[in-house]
Amino acid sequence: MSLVTPDFGLLVWMTLIFGIVFFVLAKWGFPMITASVRERAERINASIKAAKEAEERLRNLADEQNALIEESRKEQARILKEAASSRDAILEQARVQAREEASRIMEQAKAQIATEKESALRDIRSEVAMISCDVAEKVLRKEFLQDDAKKEYVSRVVEEISSARADSLKN
Amino acid sequence: MKRLVGIFILIFLLPLCANAQGSEEFDMDSYLYGHVGDSYEWHITTINGRPVSIPLPVILFSRQGSGFHCFSSSRLEDGAEYEGFRIASGESPYSGKIVETAPDGTESRPWDISITKNVLGLIINSILLVVIVLLTARWYRRHDAREEAPQGGAGLMEMLVMMVEDDIIKECIGEDYKRYSPYLLTAFFFIFLSNLMGIVPFFPGGANITGNIAVTMVLALCTFVAVNVFGNKHYWKDILWPDVPTWLKFPVPLMPVIEIIGIFTKPFSLMIRLFANILAGHFMILGVVAVIFLTAELGPAMNTGLGAVAILLGVFMDCLELLVAYIQAYVFTMLSAVFIGLSRQKPETE
Known about the structure:
The complex is a heterodimer of chains A (171) and B (350). Chain A has 171 residues and is an all-alpha fold.
C-alpha cells in the first residue's frame, strides 16, 4: 500500500525543491526565453511586412518605369511623325523652288534664244543684203560695162559706200 | 552485421549471467517494489552477493521526545538499530520505513525528512533542469535573439519551450496566458525530464520520481492553487450558482455540490494519471526484464529463447516509455492549462 500513500518526507522535499526550481526558472529561465522568441517573432513579422512594402514600392516603380517608357515611345512616334511631315514640306518647297528655277532658266534661255535668233536673223539679213548687193552689183556691173558714165557713177557710188562703210567701221 | 552478431552473443551469454544470479530464489516482490519504491540508500548494483549502494543522509525528528537526529543510512543496513531507530521489517505496517520503538514496544514513525533515493533523484533532476534551462536562457542573454536563432541544445530547448507555450498554454488559457506560462513550462519540463531520467536504468537516473504519488500530489496541488486562487468571479459564480434550472440548485444544491466536488477531482485525476502511467510503465519494463531471471530455472534453451524475446520486448517497452514520458508531460500541462483557462473564462455576453 505504500505506493499510494504519499510519504511525508518526500512531500516536504518535493514542495521545497519544486518551489525553488519554479522560482529560479520563473525568474531567470523561461520568461527570458519566451520573451526573446516573442521579440524575434515580432521582428520577423515586421520584416515580412517591410519586405512586402518594399515589393509593393518596387512594383509601383516598375509601373512608373513602364509608363515612362510608354510616354517616351509616344513622344518618339510624335517626333518621327513631325520629322516626316517637315521632310515632306521641305521636299515640296524644294520642288516648287526647283520648278520656279527651271521655269526661270527656261525663260532666260528663251530670251537668249530670241536674241540669238534676232542677231542671226540680222546677220542673215545683212548677208542677204550683201548677197543681193553683190548680185545687184554684178547685174549692174554688167549693165554699166556698156556705158562709161554709168561706170564712173558706179565707181563713185562704190567709193562713197565703201568710205561710208569704213567710217561706220571706224566708228 | 557486426552489431547483430554482438547482440546474438550477448543473448547467448545471458543464461550464464542469469544462472550465476539465479542461484538463490528470485524474489519478484522485492525486485519490483525495490525498483519503483523509495529507499534510504541508492542501490546501484550487487557484486559477489554484496550490494553496492550510495548511503544517504537520514534526517529524523522523533515524536517520542528524543529530538532531532541526522546520520548516514549505512548505519541502518541489514536491519541494524541506531539511536533507537531501525528500518521496519516486512510484517510491520511501516515496512521499509524508519520506525522508532517506544518503551512499551510499539512502533511509530518519526517525522522523517531523510534524503531518500527519490529525494536525491529529485535534487539531481532539478539541478539538471535548472542548468539546462538557465544555459538556454544564457544564450538569449548573450545573443540578440532578434538577429539570430539558437542552434544545438538551445535550439532544441527553444523548440520545446515554444511548442508548449504556443500549442498548449496559449491555446488553452487565452489572453492572459503569460502569467501562468512559467509555472506550466516548469511543470512540463520537470515532468518530462523526470520521466526520461526514470527510464535511464542506472545512477543518476532510475529513481521513480514522477511515478511517486507524493511528487504528483505536489504538482497537482500547484495546479489546484493556480486554478482556484487566481480564478475570477465568473468561475466561482459558475460553481456556486451555475446557469442551470433553479430546481437543480435550490433547495437541494445538487449542481453546486457536483461542481465543488469537481474542484477536487480535477487535480486528483491529474495526480493519479501521471503517477499511474509512469508507475505502470516501470512495472512493465521491470516485468519484461524479470522474465530473464524467472526463466533461469527452466534450463538454458528456454532461458535463451525467452530472454531474447524479453530483450526485444524490453526495447519496445523502452521506446514506448519514451513516448509515454512525453505524452504524460504534455497531458499534465495541457489539462492544467485547460483548468486554468476555465477559471479565467469571461462570462459570455449575450
